[in-house]
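TEACHING EXERCISE
Course module: macromolecular assemblies
Task: Read the component lines below, then compare them to the predicted structure of the full complex.
Student: A.B.
Group: 4
Components provided:
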Amino acid sequence: MNISDIAKLAGVSPASVSRYLNNGYLSEEKKEKIKAVIEETGYKPSTQAQTLRTGKSKLIGVIIPKIDSSSISQVVLGISSVLSENGYQILLANTFNDERKELDYIQTFNENFVDGIINLGTVSTREHAKAFKNMTVPAVVLGQNVSYASCIYHDDYNASLDLTKHVLSKGHKNIAYIGVTDKDKAVGVLRKNGFIDATSAASGVKTYVASGDFTMDNGYHNTEKLLKAHPEIDAIVCATDTIALGVVQYLNKHGLDIPGKIAVAGFGNSSGGQILTHPLTTIKFFYKECGIEGAKMLLEKLQSPETPCKSLMLGYEINEGASV
Amino acid sequence: MNISDIAKLAGVSPASVSRYLNNGYLSEEKKEKIKAVIEETGYKPSTQAQTLRTGKSKLIGVIIPKIDSSSISQVVLGISSVLSENGYQILLANTFNDERKELDYIQTFNENFVDGIINLGTVSTREHAKAFKNMTVPAVVLGQNVSYASCIYHDDYNASLDLTKHVLSKGHKNIAYIGVTDKDKAVGVLRKNGFIDATSAASGVKTYVASGDFTMDNGYHNTEKLLKAHPEIDAIVCATDTIALGVVQYLNKHGLDIPGKIAVAGFGNSSGGQILTHPLTTIKFFYKECGIEGAKMLLEKLQSPETPCKSLMLGYEINEGASV
DNA sequence: TTGTATGCGTTATCAG
DNA sequence: CTGATAACGCATACAA
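Instructor-supplied answer key:
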């Protein structure tokens, strides 16, 4: 069932049907005719052909590292709210935190299927830079401060600095940090640096740094290791709430009081942290706003392709729970 | 940059380039030529045109109700593992639990873009039945037992029956149930029915039933209401772990001991339930397996379109935590 | 083994 | 206001 079939059934030319579907530059009489036929047949124009012809798909590719994450969910919510208002649909590509898959999807989306790309950035390698340089559709990176594309990111460094200072203000002297890979500048490097700078500015404070992936397991197992080697540890700062929850799980399991024996802090203000007997002290970033602004930035580029690259940094708040 | 440009640069016909890209029915000499030009130019064939021409996109549309969910994440992981092995990519469509959006995406995907659809079902209305009947690509529904498509679902009723029996076995006599909309047969109706049948078979047990959405807030606020009206309640069974975590949050906040004062149970075996001081007693469903089997079912239909409809039910396990 | 020609379903141009 | 026709980029039947 294609446009010509409809045209025949309605006794008009394919061009008229196309006009009906688009501008509607058409006599009332024919409009009626065509409308009737389309409703009867349930005809839907082929998006493939439309896209091939117009070069526009009204689809935005959003690349995310994992789906089971409240922060990412909020970013996507923000993106979705703006884009659907403007007639775009979202195609989500989940990389399962696999750098290769991320590049694959960037490639797949690029030149194909989508009118624009939003990438919730994790790592930024030379290959990423290259991929974005070669990009023919507008793209925005969220969560990382990159030079090769417009981006929106959080003030990870200062957030970490402040969070750590808050922990220090409670008198803790042996503070551990559980982070993630340095390949992730925002979450891996900047948050760690904030921790290091805050603690080294304090006197009489010893620190212990560990690292792993974005999972509760990371928190659980690193806590186990850290405490076995350094039972004097009295506070643990984690690069994400998810990791912090793993820490909490370990501490609960071993009857170590939070924050009496050991304080715990994280980043992300996830709902999971708030169910605890002692709600998690955590950094609240503006994830939904990040999505909203990112989508707006992309729309702007879609409308005027010559828009220059921008980078926007968003602030943060400390959510003081009872875990510190 | 299209196939003819490449052909010209390589001094061959467009057909030869096409052959190079596909079968490779071609002399070594020309292969070399074409390969060189493609690498030099970074040429990528247009997926749009390929799809228009072949009718195949190698893309599977997966429609999910929310992304911030560990169960859904696991299903998607299962789907992804099977499909990517077979050269398919996944396009995720998130409906934010909006029934209208779900139908929209079914429509959008149908006849367009994708070679097949996997729908993580929530509600099943007459419109859903109609949409699936009109579907021109193979489709599989996950999580709901529907008649209009192949499906894979969980044994929600018996899981709920067993879970409730387990709660009863601990001597609780005033048991509340916090569920979700009856529009969702699997989670809304069957789990509730299991609860009702188990409790009404027991003697001297009073029950209290509330309902809301798939959020922690549902658990939190309904617990508040229930306990204010019925302070004698000594156990709360929830249709999902997320709801149960909201219950836990309320109980923790008000210093009500779990399970001493009130027992809590849920469904889904989410990691969030396991961080608690008293890990959540919950039903473990086989989500990843559900995704795997669903993807296999779809592949089968893709390969032989005349495959008849199937429905497959998966079992469950009780994960006995310390919350009951 | 290779090239030419055609058509997938649509929209845009242009003449009427 | 309307219809014929070309073109988007590719894959394939057919001819060579």
